[in-house]
């Protein structure tokens, strides 16, 4: 069984709600030591030996050690973890919700069963602003005349490309079904339909990796963007989904995009829909506490997973029937549900609350360090996502009867999420400007 031991935790500068999802830890291992580790995947070891990563190894503000017990002897397979069981027995892909340099730190996580990576502006804000690993490349970029925002994207693209290389064996082994790395368009474009389309095309082109997902927020202005980007044959991770109504619009945008693509082979255009969970409870719990009745208080901590369970029912409904079957004939793959924001915000709740009850086939669970550590250590694997559909429906309805407006919950969390990512993005650009000034790279 793999275990993750946290060595130290430093406070993050970001005060936004996403910072709690940041998952900011890193595994400290040198590339040299990794070459002598047993690899579950022989291709991964070959890949490390043949790949040059320019990023220097530097201390990070949060350290994790991933220890994978294995039989003695070089090349021996590591012991299985619950993450392997999650994928092989239940068809759910465990992904890691974090990324920073050196990306070779991801290799022990891949060994432990991680099958993809998600990132967002808040993750990069933390990674770049708290690590010296980016200094050399940043210095070269500014000396070459790059403006601060252009330099930021160069730093991000380098990390995404290197991570994509590490996960490419999984992508190849699953024929494009897994092994993705996600990178988000600028959060400043959340209300800009055409700007988002152009940004997604540009990111897809410059990253130039088959297993990259371009993240687009599920804001109303970006729903048409999703359709257009999919129609252009670009794979998309749709993020910041907080309600069933918006989720259905996201599915329709994916289907519309596939139909509009004109492609005879749709097998390489894939998508995930990132449905956020823990933040739903954070907001709804506050509303329930304000109501204050025993019935209301008894529903705390139940809203998020109930809505997620109903989202899975919607997923099954939409990806069946004549319309979908026509697309399947052209090689189309289902837009998998991805559970995001899976770290527990209320310490009174079980630490696997947003992982264990949401296990089901054709889904993804992207976990920050806290959730990943907990599930590897004591998570149980079994199909749970649709084990109590009637109960989920009952909770959802009971909340409505108490006056909880699901439309308000979704729109409020979307506003908070977009705003938080914008603040992280702006904060990072400010810190990069300060770094450039401190290095005397910018003339006044």
UniProtKB/TrEMBL annotation:
Would you say which domain of life the source belongs to? Eukaryota
Extract the Pfam families matched here: TAL_FSA (PF00923)
Print the keywords alphabetically. Answer: Cytoplasm, Pentose shunt, Schiff base, Transferase
What Gene3D superfamilies does the record tag this protein with?
Answer: Aldolase class I
Q: Name one GO biological process term.
A: carbohydrate metabolic process
From the UniProt record, give the pathway where this protein acts.
Answer: Carbohydrate degradation; pentose phosphate pathway
Q: Which reaction does it catalyse?
A: D-sedoheptulose 7-phosphate + D-glyceraldehyde 3-phosphate = D-erythrose 4-phosphate + beta-D-fructose 6-phosphate
CDD domains, per the entry: Transaldolase_like (cd00955)
Q: What is its main location?
A: cytoplasm
The UniProt entry, under InterPro entries, shows: Aldolase_TIM (IPR013785), TAL/FSA (IPR001585), Transaldolase_2 (IPR004732), Transaldolase_AS (IPR018225)
Q: Which GO terms describe its cellular component?
A: cytoplasm
Location within or outside the cell: Cytoplasm
Q: Mind listing the GO molecular function terms for this protein? A: transaldolase activity
**Protein purpose:** Transaldolase is important for the balance of metabolites in the pentose-phosphate pathway.
Q: What family is this?
A: Belongs to the transaldolase family. Type 2 subfamily.
* HAMAP family with a match to the protein in the record: Transaldolase_2
Q: What is this protein called?
A: OLC1v1028508C1
């Amino acid at each position: 069984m793999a275990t993750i031991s946290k060595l130290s935790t430093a406070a993050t500068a970001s005060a936004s709600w996403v910072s709690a999802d940041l998952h900011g830890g890193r595994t400290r291992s040198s590339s040299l030591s990794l070459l002598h580790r047993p690899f579950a995947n022989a291709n991964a070891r070959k890949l490390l030996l043949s790949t040059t990563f320019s990023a220097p190894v530097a201390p990070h503000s949060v350290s994790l050690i991933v220890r994978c017990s294995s039989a003695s002897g070089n090349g021996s397979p590591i012991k299985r973890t619950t993450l392997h069981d999650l994928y092989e027995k239940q068809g759910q892909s465990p992904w890691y919700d974090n990324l920073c340099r050196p990306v070779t730190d991801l290799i022990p996580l891949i060994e432990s069963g991680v099958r993809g990576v998600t990132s967002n502006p808040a993750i990069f804000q933390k990674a770049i602003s708290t690590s010296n690993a980016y200094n050399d490349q940043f210095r070269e970029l500014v000396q070459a005349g790059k403006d601060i925002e252009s330099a930021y994207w160069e730093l991000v693209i380098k990390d995404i490309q290197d991570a994509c290389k590490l996960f490419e064996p999984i992508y190849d082994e699953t024929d494009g079904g897994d092994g993705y790395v996600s990178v988000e368009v600028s959060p400043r474009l959340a209300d800009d339909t055409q700007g988002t389309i152009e940004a997604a095309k540009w990111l897809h082109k410059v990253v130039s990796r088959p297993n990259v997902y371009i993240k687009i927020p599920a804001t109303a202005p970006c729903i048409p963007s999703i359709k257009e980007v999919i129609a252009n044959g670009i794979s998309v991770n749709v993020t910041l989904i907080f309600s069933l109504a918006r989720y259905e619009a996201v599915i329709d945008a994916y289907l519309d995009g596939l139909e509009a693509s004109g492609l005879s082979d749709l097998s390489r255009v894939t998508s995930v829909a990132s449905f956020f969970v823990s933040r739903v409870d954070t907001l709804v719990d506050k509303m329930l506490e304000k109501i204050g009745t025993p019935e209301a208080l008894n529903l705390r901590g139940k809203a998020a997973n109930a809505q997620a369970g109903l989202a899975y029912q919607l997923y099954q409904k939409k990806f069946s029937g004549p319309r979908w079957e026509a697309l399947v004939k052209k090689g189309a793959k289902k837009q998998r549900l991805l559970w995001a924001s899976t770290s527990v915000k209320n310490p009174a709740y079980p630490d696997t609350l947003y992982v264990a009850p949401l296990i089901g086939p054709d889904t993804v669970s992207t976990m920050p360090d806290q959730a990943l550590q907990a599930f590897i250590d004591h998570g149980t694997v079994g199909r749970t996502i649709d084990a109590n559909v009637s109960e989920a429906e009952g909770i959802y309805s009971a909340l409505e009867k108490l006056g909880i407006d699901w439309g308000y919950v979704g729109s409020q969390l979307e506003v908070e999420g977009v705003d938080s990512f914008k603040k992280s993005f702006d904060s990072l650009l400010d810190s990069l400007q300060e770094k450039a000034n401190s290095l005397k790279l910018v003339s006044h």
